[in-house]
Amino acid sequence: MSYLVIARKWRPQTFADIAGQEPITRTLQNAIRANRIAHAFLFTGVRGVGKTTAARILAKALNCEEGPTATPCDRCTHCQEITQGNSIDVLEIDGASNRGIDEIRQIIENVRYQPAKCRFKIYIIDEVHQVTKDAFNALLKTLEEPPPSVKFILATTEPHRLPPTILSRCQRYDFRRINLREIVERLGLIAKSEGLEIAEGALVLLAREADGSMRDAQSLLEQVLAFAEPSEGGGTRQRVDEILLQEILGLAERRVLYEISAAVLQADARRCIELVAQVVNVGCDIGRLARDLVEHFRNLLIARLAGAGDLLDLPDQEVSDLIEQARALAVDTLLDYFDFIAAGEEEMARSATPRFALESVLVRMAGLPKTLPVTEWVERLERLEVKVAGETKLGSAPVRAPEQRLPSPIPAAPPQPKTQDVDDGDTFNTWQGFVAFVGKEKRPLSPYLESATALELPPGPLRFGIAERYHLAFWQDGDNLTTLKDLAKRYFQQDVDLHIVNSIRQGDAKPTEAIAVAPVSPGEDRSPMVKEALRIFGGSVRNVRRENG
Fold it and tell me: What is the model's pTM?
């Protein structure tokens, strides 16, 4: 007898044997008991989660000689034929190779005939999303109103590719990914039955590699069984632990992920490079390491947010390790790390030198500053403010900056009636033309001129009034004034003297009030509060704005 792979040998034969899909199996069993059986079913989900297996069990439940029954006997002729795949009334069709309208037309012709032996004629169409649009359209009427003795079971991993007209005619069941603990439990049962001694950590690693697919997990276990077979001299199978399994599958050790994350958290870029070199030297896949790091930093973030909840489908010990490593970090910091490593993994996928890309990402992550919540910054500043206020009350003389010569403030324009020049239409048009020219050449300057009032235009000096404090402060910047003077020279085709007048209303500020800007010398003394703020935020002072009374 030919060898039967584990995935087929251990395929579930009853609804109770299907792992991780209890809501679906319960619904199907209750529908059979209540005789509320739909004419068409749609099973969706990722690979290896039991869609085709559930379709076969449903076919056995409907055609069992003791049924229809929610628990097929698995002993009668009909059940055995369906299990072996040679029943003439249960037809499994591959949607990829039978996707055309001719194949669908053949199905439509055959459904008119009664089943040869069984109670129902059942069509199981796998990967149904591969069927063409025209073939779907031809199937619509038959799928909506098939003969009473015909049932359709469609299975697909991509339900979004099915036409809405097909989806509306089927009873849909979404199969979820099988969680890690259920996969570990099933793999342990299979390994024990196959005589394989395997460590719990190795089973967890196999389940993690399967990514929610029971079939993938069983295929990996079969690879391990082949490795553990005794040599020609006989003997017992080799015991498989986690380290040996990593060598078999070419995976990096889980501890390497924790060491790399620890090096990143400690800002040790050199250690990050060394760990990547170790992984490469033992022949592990660098792309897989990057994906594992993305998952690891995501797990750190979830562990920091949710603790030991159900959001992490991991063993209890690993959850504890994640919580311990993430405890001292802020959520914003972990989010920055996750964003960096996720973007780096995408960059590696496009890079011709993925190792170099991963190393550069880890070095950048190691150099990231630790992010603290804004509330903590505010609390620090408030505590500092209280401290400084207390020192002042005790008689401590505040530190004053040495006096500096400041530029003469711009005098406010005394109230005066409008001149004939301002009322003149040509003057207004000239000013508007100049504002438009500034907006075209230096767009950022334009908003600060649009609210200004022209008082005098060349050939004399260019005088205009500013009625808003913020705009007035903007024109106190030397670079802005120089830029405006150059633009005025180009527009009026002559050297222009600029005079900016403070026209702030009396109710808003004093008539003589203006804002002056002075450079700050590197050695200028500052108050303790300013120094502490600079230390906390890692900033520097470029200039000081003072208000002259």
Answer: 0.61
